[in-house]
Amino acid sequence: MSREVLERLRRLVREQGGLIATLVDHRAGGDPQAPPMAQSPAAVLADGPRTRQHGEEYELLVEAIYEGYLLHYGRPRVVRADEADLALLAGDRLYAIGLARLVALGDTLAVAELADTITLCALAQGAGDAMLAEAVWAAGVRAVGWGPNGTHRRAKELVLAGSPEALDAMRTSAAVVPVRD
């Protein structure tokens, strides 16, 4: 993950003001205990042919959405909230910040796809399946960056159905560069 985009996210959250601005973790590197990621979901999405032209904006807004997700279910890198209820509220605010920036770009396909990603991750986390949630994120950002396809739509249906095949289907969707069909 790019430290630069996380610093940009810190600045964006501070600029928003209010309670969430007071929760910014000012350590430049974030949590030293957090496991490193090979490539953040935002970097994958920003590199896609659909999103590359505005890659920096997509990277920032997806980092905001992903940080919201991490506040709900993982280890956030930018915002620290010691109380669970406050973490949920801050996470919701970051979802809203990212989605609002996406709407401003006029990318309705990405809005729908990321809304599905957030929903499917919540379902996976609710079922106690963190691996499925990670696969949903990976497949969701790939679908936004390159465009969704039938493989991805089928994988989403399997998650919604609670199918045991959902994890493999999402991993397949994430691994393949989607081609519109």
Model description:
There is one protein chain. With 181 residues, this protein is an all-alpha fold. It contains nine helices and no strands. The two termini are 31 Å apart.
N-end to C-end Cα span: 31 Å
How much strand content do the residues show?
A: under 5%
Helix content: 55-70%
Query: Care to count the β-strands?
Result: 0
Radius of gyration equals 16 Å
Summed over residues and divided by their number, the pLDDT gives a mean of 89
Secondary structural class: mainly alpha
Largest sheet: none
- Write the element-wise H/E pattern from the N-terminal end onward: HHHHHHHHH
Can you count the helices?
A: 9
Shape: globular
**Uncertain regions spanning at least 5 consecutive residues:** none
Describe the secondary structure blueprint for this structure.
Layout: H1 3-16, H2 18-22, H3 41-46, H4 55-73, H5 84-105, H6 108-126, H7 130-146, H8 150-161, H9 166-175
